């Protein structure tokens, strides 16, 4: 085993203690925020959004589950470019095998993506395809396949986990400086991540291509409905507004993930190791659900009103009071002139 040179490798931000603290702080923030959003979706969704209420709930449920798993149940300490790391969370305290903890995260990521797909599919179906027999059959079959893949595609990799007595020394030899700031156990998921990465990438390409197709078809349906005047102007305006809102709600958290995921890809492809960068990358990645939740609160008007209702009403009252006084003064002036 290579003897590490620990000069300049003692940063607290590289340590597992930092990751554990960061994730626990995030848990303390996320749980009340997620609970509040569950409340506003269930009790503050207006009648005009009743058709999407439980689809929004489903998206939020899986985002919240992924958040809690990341920051509290698993609390992963990843060691890229090796496909290795260790759990610092509740699951490891109760003795759950790390391979099953990884599987939990993978399944929850898949279910979060599918919940977003289902939400957009609901919007397209509501707008365009209530009488299209082909689409009804296609969507049922496609989502059955997506659900099965989300729950099962990772199972074959579970049986390919290498013997830790052989794999851990290889990782420590490749990344000797890890022992400068982390001396705990290491779980090696695989010594060759090529197959796992390619299969996962193919799965994501299919899912996001499907999402892109749904967004495009929904947009085209809105244009068609507008030209044909098939729906009232008010209904179309509400449909457009909500469609744009869920696009923004989806794009914002994924846009924030681009940089850390790009770093992880670069790290694995180039063999670059920097544990501080690893830690911050996964802090950002694990914030996806929280960012998505804040987006739900701020983007959708009914939920924004539930959050800022009193402040908005006070502001409206302050604005309307001078306008009301002006109108009254103008009315009195008109009365005197007449």
Automatic annotation (TrEMBL):
Keywords associated with the record: Membrane, Transmembrane, Transmembrane helix
Keyword Disulfide bond attached: no
Ranges annotated as spanning the membrane: 21-42, 54-79, 99-120, 141-159, 201-222, 242-268, 280-300
Disordered as annotated region, ranges: 319-338
Pfam families in UniProt: 7TM_GPCR_Srh
Keyword set includes Metal-binding: no
Composition-biased stretches (Low complexity): 327-338
PANTHER family xrefs: SERPENTINE RECEPTOR (PTHR22941), SERPENTINE RECEPTOR, CLASS H (PTHR22941:SF18)
This protein's name: G-protein coupled receptors family 1 profile domain-containing protein
Species of provenance: Caenorhabditis latens
Lineage summary: Eukaryota, Metazoa, Ecdysozoa, Nematoda, Chromadorea
């Amino acid at each position: 085993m290579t003897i590490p040179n620990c000069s300049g490798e003692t940063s607290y931000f590289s340590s597992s203690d930092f990751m554990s603290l960061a994730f626990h702080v995030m848990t303390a923030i996320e749980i009340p925020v997620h609970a509040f959003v569950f409340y506003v979706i269930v009790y503050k969704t207006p009648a005009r959004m009743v058709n999407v209420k439980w689809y929004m709930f489903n998206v939020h449920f899986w985002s919240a589950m992924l958040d809690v798993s990341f920051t509290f149940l698993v609390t992963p300490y990843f060691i890229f470019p090796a496909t290795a790391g260790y759990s610092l969370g509740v699951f490891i305290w109760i003795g759950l095998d790390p391979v099953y903890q990884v599987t939990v995260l993978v399944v929850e990521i898949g279910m979060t993506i599918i919940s977003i797909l289902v939400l957009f599919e609901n919007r397209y179906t509501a707008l365009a395809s209530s009488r299209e027999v082909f689409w009804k059959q296609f969507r049922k079959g496609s989502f059955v396949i997506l659900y099965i893949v989300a729950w099962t595609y990772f199972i074959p990799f579970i049986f390919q986990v290498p013997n830790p007595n052989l794999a851990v020394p290889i990782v420590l030899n490749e990344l000797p400086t890890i022992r400068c700031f982390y001396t705990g156990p290491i779980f090696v998921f695989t010594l060759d991540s090529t197959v796992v990465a390619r299969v996962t990438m193919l799965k994501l390409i299919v899912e996001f291509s499907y999402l892109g197709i749904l967004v495009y078809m929904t947009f085209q349906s809105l244009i068609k409905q507008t030209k044909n005047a098939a729906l009232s102007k008010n209904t179309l305006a509400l449909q457009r507004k909500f469609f744009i809102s869920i696009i923004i709600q989806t794009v914002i958290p994924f846009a924030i993930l681009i940089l850390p995921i790009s770093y992880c890809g670069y790290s694995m492809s180039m063999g670059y190791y920097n544990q501080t960068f690893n830690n911050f990358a996964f802090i950002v990645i694990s914030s996806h659900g929280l960012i998505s939740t804040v987006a739900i609160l701020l983007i959708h008007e009914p939920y924004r009103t539930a959050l800022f209702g009193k402040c908005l009403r006070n502001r409206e009252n302050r604005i309307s009071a001078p306008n009301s006084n002006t109108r009254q003064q103008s009315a009195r002036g008109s009365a005197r002139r007449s």
